[in-house]
UniProtKB/TrEMBL annotation:
The keyword ATP-binding does not apply. The keyword Ribonucleoprotein applies. HAMAP family: Ribosomal_bS20 (MF_00500). GO terms for cellular component: cytosol; small ribosomal subunit. Pfam families: Ribosomal_S20p. InterPro entries: Ribosomal_bS20 (IPR002583), Ribosomal_bS20_sf (IPR036510). This is Small ribosomal subunit protein bS20. It comes from the Bacteria. Belongs to the bacterial ribosomal protein bS20 family. Keywords: Ribonucleoprotein, Ribosomal protein, RNA-binding, rRNA-binding.
Length: 92
């Protein structure tokens, strides 16, 4: 347990930040899961319309400092690649 007033304040602040970070991370992962499920179920048009929203959430999470901007770029790239691959397989 913290002994000083400063340490107690830091614990309270860290708890608020941890809760906020968990919210943003969970929200991002949920959107990615929904997107992947659409692709698995073959709802490619629905997934295509949902992609900009997913990418927006990913970059929003990075802007909050929850994930690094390079991680956001990597995740956005991977979901885009996933959709493109599924669309290509559906055509051919």
């Amino acid at each position: 347990m913290a002994n000083t007033r400063q340490a107690l304040k830091r614990m309270r602040r860290d708890a608020r930040r941890r809760e906020r970070n968990r919210y943003h991370l969970s929200r991002m992962k949920t959107y990615i899961r929904k997107f992947r499920r659409m692709i698995e179920e073959g709802e490619l048009e629905k997934a295509r319309e949902f992609l900009p929203e997913v990418i927006s959430i990913i970059y929003h999470t990075a802007s909050k400092g929850v994930i690094h901007k390079r991680e956001a770029s990597r995740r956005a790239s991977r979901v885009t690649e996933l959709l493109n691959k599924a669309l290509k397989e559906a055509q051919g």
